[in-house]
Design a protein that fits this description.
The protein is an alpha/beta fold. Among the domains are: 68 residues, no CATH class; 104 residues, no CATH class. 45% of the residues lie in helices and 16% in strands. Helix 6 packs across helix 7, helix 8 runs antiparallel to helix 9 and helix 8 packs antiparallel against helix 11.
């Protein structure tokens, strides 16, 4: 006969079991910590930086897995992949929400098999971070879902399509994308500063995500860029210049010099087109202008001189460069230098008058007033050169040599009413680039340089036409994906402004 355990024995056994359970739980917690540590070593970041959690912020899309927006490059099997950059976006919890309902038309809410009305079974909600001047908000797109109440009618779920978007699966609304582009390429605000400015507003968007959005936006807008290039190439008057930009190289903290070419059209194609190249070789100018056969304004860079010598273009060298060289030649024959500058000033004064008149009157002024001044300059400068008293390497000697080398082309602009005396159109288009690179310092890659060229082209074309680039970009980015390919010219800045009655 077994005896029942006493109360004291049960108490001792219970205490032993409790202690064993606590020990097992402690061991389990230690093992879990070890597993988490190993996972971090394999898949996590190695940085020891700790970012404190801000309870006032709300993850923008808590029900969605983060979308990897970095471009995936093909690598060989033995190449070690870099850790993915985090791309979580956070916004203040009190951001306003603008709700937009996109429903099916009434005629599509009828079952095609039974003829019965479809029943609403839920909603598909898409949230995007949007921006208007002065504040951020959440654009919430609600699309009701419908199905037939008759189980035998297998028509599936009916839902209205999403409105067209520039970037698929992007958390940024077109209004925010347009603002980011304007901040960088009009206001010259680098992305790292934008990241800091956004953070002060409680909007956390990592710089890598901003960069990814900019590059993807540039690639998506390339069709419009190609249309602008085509319009200038098919026109009869263009201006070209180039300017150096730094590009980040493979070595840490090092850069190499690349170049941004700018090609500007005249009245028939009033665009500013930028083209990124990794060097300044003549082949780049040949590539940029290979199909162009009209009037070309430029400085005396050898690539353009070759095009003129091949008679591929009607070259109009920039007289402003001639004036600048004589202006800088302060030593030497001061009286002669002053006379040359005075004659050049007369030319520019006459040109201002000529451009206020009709094309026919402009040509008449050039033929009757300006050509005699050019002939007088040619004779005087040739005589000065023939005297042989100037040192070739002196400032005045270089200015005279520069002028003489351009004599065969100096009068070209007088033959065509759309031609200009100078290349200031392209010079002005280069200026925003020069200001911008003082802020963002360099482009991160060749892909980034190409995206920058496309976005610079669109926003600077808008500025040249006195169009608000933010309004233009936001509207065009919403419409581009659904716009007919054979009517892309309708979305170019000047045509867009005419359709909106801004020009």
């Amino acid at each position: 006969m077994t005896t029942q355990p006493t109360y004291e024995e049960l108490l001792v056994e219970w205490i032993a079991i409790k202690q064993e359970k606590a020990q097992i739980e402690q061991q389990n917690a230690v093992l879990k910590q070890q597993i988490e540590w190993f996972k971090r070593q394999l898949f996590g970041k190695k940085s020891e930086r700790v970012i404190p959690e801000n309870k006032d912020q709300l993850v923008l899309f808590p029900d969605l897995k983060p979308i990897e927006e970095e471009k995936v490059e093909k690598v060989s099997s033995h190449t070690r992949r870099k850790p993915h950059v985090g791309n979580r976006i956070a916004v203040p919890a009190d951001l306003p929400i603008e709700r937009e309902i996109i429903d099916l038309p009434e005629e599509e809410k009828i079952c095609k098999i039974t003829g019965e009305p479809l029943v609403k079974i839920g909603e598909e909600v898409t949230r995007k971070l949007a921006h208007k001047p002065g504040y951020f908000f959440i654009r919430e797109i609600v699309r009701p879902k419908y199905a037939s109440p008759n189980k035998e009618a297998d028509t599936g779920v009916q839902i209205a399509p999403l409105p067209p978007a520039l970037l698929n699966r992007c958390h940024a609304d077109e209004s925010l994308l347009a603002s980011i582009i304007i901040w960088k390429y009009v206001d010259h605000l680098p992305l790292y500063r934008q990241e800091e400015c956004l953070a002060r507003e409680g909007v956390i968007i990592p710089r890598q995500v901003l960069s990814n959005w900019v590059i993807r936006a540039g690639a998506a807008l390339r069709p419009l860029y190609n249309e602008m290039v085509k319009a200038i190439i098919e026109s009869n008057c263009a201006f070209v210049d180039e300017s150096p930009v730094d590009m980040q190289s493979k070595g840490k903290g090092s850069t190499v010099q690349a170049y941004m070419w700018v090609l500007c059209g005249a009245a028939s194609a009033p665009y500013r087109v930028y083209r990124f190249f990794t060097n300044r070789k003549h082949e780049n100018a040949d590539e940029l202008l290979k199909d162009y056969r009209g009037i070309l304004h430029s400085d005396k860079y050898g690539a353009y001189v070759k095009l003129a010598e091949r008679k591929q273009v009607i070259w109009c060298p920039c007289t402003a460069h001639i004036r600048r060289m004589f202006y800088e030649a302060e030593s030497g024959d001061a009286q002669f230098r002053s006379w040359v500058l005075r004659q050049l000033r007369y030319l520019f004064m006459l040109e201002r008058v000529a451009w206020s008149r009709s094309p026919e009157e402009r040509l008449r002024i050039r033929q009757e007033k300006e050509i005699p001044i050019i002939d007088k300059l040619i004779d005087a400068i040739k005589n000065k050169f023939a005297e042989g008293r100037l040192l070739p390497k002196s400032k005045l000697g270089q200015a005279i040599g520069y002028f003489i080398s351009l004599i065969p082309y100096l009068k070209n602009y007088t033959k065509y009413p759309e031609a200009r005396l100078d290349n200031n159109t392209a010079e002005r288009a280069v200026r925003p680039l020069a200001i911008g690179r003082k802020n963002w310092l360099f482009v991160g890659s060749e892909e980034g340089g190409e995206a920058s060229a496309i976005l610079f082209s669109l926003v600077q074309s808008c500025r040249a036409l006195d169009i608000n680039p933010k309004d233009y970009l936001e509207d065009v980015m919403r419409r581009l994906s659904d716009h007919p390919a054979n009517k892309l010219h309708e979305l170019l800045p000047d045509q867009w402004a005419k359709n909106h009655r801004l020009l």
